Amino acid sequence: MSRVRVVPMVHDPDESKRALAQVRRPVIGRIRLACVLSAVGALAGLAPFVGLVELADTLLAPSIDRDRAAVVAVLIVLGLVLRGVFLSAALTITHVADVRLQAILRRRMIAHLGRVPLGWFARNSSGRLRKTAMGDVDALHQLVAHHAVEMTAAAVTPLGALAYLVVLDWRLALLAVATIPLYVAAYVWMERGSSEVMRKLDESNARLSSAVVEFISGIAVVKAFGRARKAHAAYRQAAAEYTDFFAAWVQPMNRVEALAGLAVSAPVVGLVTIVGGVWFVGQGWVSPGEALGCVLLACVVPVAIEPLGFGALNQRAAAAAALRIQQLLDVAPLPAPASPQRPAGRRVEYDDVQFAYDDHDVLHGVTFTCEPGSVTALVGPSGSGKSTLATLLLRFHDVTGGAIRIGGVDVRHIDPAELYRHVGFVLQDVRLLGGSIRDNVALGRPQATDAEIRAACRAAQIHDRITALPRGYDSVAGQDVQLSGGEAQRVSIARALLADTPVLVLDEATAFADPESEAAIQDALSRLAEGRTVLVIAHRLSTITPADQIVVLDRGQVVETGTHTELLAAQGQYARMWTAHEEVPA
């Protein structure tokens, strides 16, 4: 039997590199073109240094060749201009590529998340998901827009300079890189175990981001109950872990990095090459102009090499971000049927339904039928599988055994868009989009007229509240108005009424309603349920006593089925639950 499994996110260096290559693939051609232009620009940037060598030798000659000096001066200016033109063109191309890549990735993620089973979102932190969809895409900017161009220039510039020095005199080339081995040795030492460090740092940052989002999302509730200090502890702990880990990693390396930076700093390199150049001139190995060129080019080499270290850090960070993006895009989508079928009727059948995830069995052979136009209530202790049964009908997940059918058709054989035209739902956790109230109500039927939207809102008993707002139905949820839990629930009911689906799932629809709203919600739900096949999940048994059928669940199995009267007469688990319910003071 197949099982739903939550796959943890891993950070393997090789996998990160493959993910980075996969993510950059749509714009890799533009990046390569930019690298070519950057290389040409870097070589053009060496022209002034070459020109200064020639100019120095010309000016120090016993007889100054003014025409030659003028030509060299023109070539120096031309080299500077060409460098600016080519590098600007390269950066323009990569910035356009970056914008294009961000658009491609965000569209792909939005499209893919639209096909991911809805149950996946319940088991994945919104903070981590937001970090991937927003922060990780932004983290690729430095790599795409700058890294390739800057790294190409940083590599070509010292190589070109050394090649020119070798042409002048191989000893000048050795002198120019005399301090580089010290820098390389320090850098190698600092890189020890860096992949593992970056993995842990990334995980710590993800925990911190998740803690921030979760704390902010629940701040109103925790403050209302005076638990802000305790709720804040998770954030403080995540922040402390991140700070302590980062400090323990950085502090020892700061001293080594300072010494390494000193070895390739302009004053040290300049002093070494000046002393060596004077000696070389005294030995008659090179001319004064060539010694001057060595000093100038030697100072260029470390300045160009230094970005390589930062580039490596940027590339690792971008690779980790690319891996998270790729893992998000690799989440298995909800399987779409090869030959979609349309339901023929409103009968809902649960046939030996089994479900498991993470090797934990949740449902064990659940079987019952919801007849057309009837109300079936699911009751049972917490964790008995009530909500799971409801969400399986909505294909938040797929069953791992048995089948769920609507109108004689397995829900797995119904196209998801067609499924949601047949099954509507009102869940306890209402989510309103950041748009107008009108758009929120018309979410299931965007083509609905204003008259139809208003009629649905009247039936849901929310019309008067909406029209009392300064902008009425054009009010934006979360900006122009903050609806209470009960009001948001009635907007959700209006949405379900407008969608007019033949099958309806109600999952604790009054769970978060204030007492003033509960009666209005119950009345709206009664209108919503008329003529539909309804599956209701409720903890308060008094709300489902009129149901045509009550299915009692315990530990993922059906233990009783019948009407309220029949189950009370059976003196079984439902009767015991009813007795306990009656003893709870109102």
| Low-confidence segments | 1-10
CATH A-level architecture of the largest domain = 3-Layer(aba) Sandwich
Mean of pLDDT: 80
Number of domains: 2
Strand content: 5-15%
What is the 3D shape? elongated
Global Rg = 35 Å
Alpha-carbon distance between the two ends: 45 Å
State the helix count. Answer: 21
Please identify the structural class as seen in this structure: alpha/beta
CATH domain fold name of the largest domain: Rossmann fold
Question: Helical proportion?
Answer: 55-70%
Counted beta strands:
10
Strand order of the largest sheet: 6-7-8-3-9-10
Task: Please report the first level of CATH classification, the CATH class of the largest domain.
Answer: Alpha Beta
Give me the CATH superfamily of the largest domain.
P-loop containing nucleotide triphosphate hydrolases
**What's the main sheet like?**
6 strands, mixed
Q: What do you see in this structure?
A:
By secondary structure, the protein is an alpha/beta fold. It has two domains: 13-179 and 264-329, ABC transporter type 1, transmembrane domain (ABC transporter transmembrane region fold), CATH 1.20.1560.10; 348-583, Rossmann fold (3-Layer(aba) Sandwich). It has 21 helices and ten strands. It has helices at residues 13-24, 28-60, 66-113, 118-122, 126-168, 170-176, 180-190, 194-217, 219-224, 228-263, 266-283, 288-329, 386-393, 416-422, 437-441, 450-459, 463-467, 485-499, 515-529, 564-570, 573-583; strands spanning 348-357, 360-370, 375-379, 401-406, 409-410, 423-427, 503-507, 533-537, 549-554, 557-562. The strands form two sheets. A six-stranded mixed sheet has the order 6-7-8-3-9-10. Strands 2-1-4-5 form a four-stranded antiparallel sheet, with helices on one face. Residues 1-10 have low confidence and may be disordered. Residues 33-298 form the ABC transmembrane type-1 domain. It comes from Kibdelosporangium persicum. The chain crosses the membrane at residues 31-50, 70-97, 148-166, 172-190, 258-279, 285-305. Pfam families: ABC_membrane (PF00664), ABC_tran (PF00005). This is ABC transporter transmembrane region.
